[in-house]
Amino acid sequence: MENNQRHALITGATSGIGYELAKLFAKDKYNLVIVARDSSALERTASELRSEGIQVHTIAKDLFLKESAREIYDEVKSLRIHIDILVNDAGQGYYGKFEDTDLEKEIDIIQLNVISCITLTKLFLKDMLLMNDGRILNVGSIAGEAPGPYQSVYHGTKAFVNSWTAAIRNELKDTNITVTALLPGATDTDFFNKADMLDSKILDSKLSNPEDVAKDGYDALMSGDDKIVSGMKNKVQVAMANVLPDSVASETMGKQQEPKDKS
């Protein structure tokens, strides 16, 4: 099937890595369904993407809410669109020591990063299986490869995404459906602002370019790869985390993420 007859659905598509992925799909003439919370940002993004000569449908939903993932699926079905490629990009962090952070916000992070991702994948995967064709890109993180003091819940959610993605890929190995994990490191997006971590030492390090991260993920997805760690520095960090004891990896990550004014 020609790309201009195929549809990709991207969550978190109005900023950061999701936005850069949307541009890559549009350039390759995939019709798009883009999802985000801000309807005005969605319309601006859709207008830009349509300049590539593709169809763009917008769905304004808040994936912090339990019902939103199913509502997205139902809306897509009402449009009589088959999703050939699903990109689960939407995600958020929350900064601070676990003893001090707000429980409800952490439950929201788990809902967004884990539950909504599972729900969308389950629903659209069943449709892909009927066609025995499809691709899924889950945006995990190198944060999922090591414990993360000051972002303990976020790191835990990304550990889940990384592991779960590998598991369902194996389950689908005898089908024509591929599942790819994209593992970025610290990237120059609005993530740190939304996570309330602008005073973290990690912002003193060189941040990855979201365009480069998106290109790595897009190429890996289209090649059917199982996983891509974006950036050489991040590849080294993941390799080290895989051989170090958790206590050492935690200490190292804690030093990177602690507040700048920590005495």
Blueprint of the fold:
Blueprint: E1 7-11, H1 16-27, E2 31-36, H2 39-50, E3 56-60, H3 68-78, E4 85-88, H4 103-131, E5 134-139, H5 152-171, E6 177-183, H6 191-194, H7 210-223, E7 227-229, H8 232-243, H9 246-257
Parallel strand pairs: 1-2, 1-4, 2-3, 4-5, 5-6, 6-7
InterPro entries: NAD(P)-bd_dom_sf (IPR036291), SDR_fam (IPR002347)
Family: Belongs to the short-chain dehydrogenases/reductases (SDR) family.
Pfam families: adh_short (PF00106)
What does the largest sheet look like?
A: 7 strands, parallel
**What's the count of strands?**
7
Q: Architecture, according to CATH? A: 3-Layer(aba) Sandwich
Describe the global form: globular
Percent helix range: 40-55%
CATH superfamily: NAD(P)-binding Rossmann-like Domain
Q: Could you give the distance between the termini?
A: 59 Å
Which spans have pLDDT < 50 for at least 5 consecutive residues?
none
CA gyration radius, whole angstroms: 18 Å
Order of helices and strands: EHEHEHEHEHEHHEHH
Strand percentage: 5-15%
- The first-level CATH class is given as Alpha Beta
Number of domains: 1
Spatial strand arrangement across the major sheet: 3-2-1-4-5-6-7
Structural class by SSE content:
alpha/beta
Question: What's the rounded overall pLDDT mean?
Answer: 96
Number of H- or I-type helical stretches = 9
The CATH topology assignment is Rossmann fold
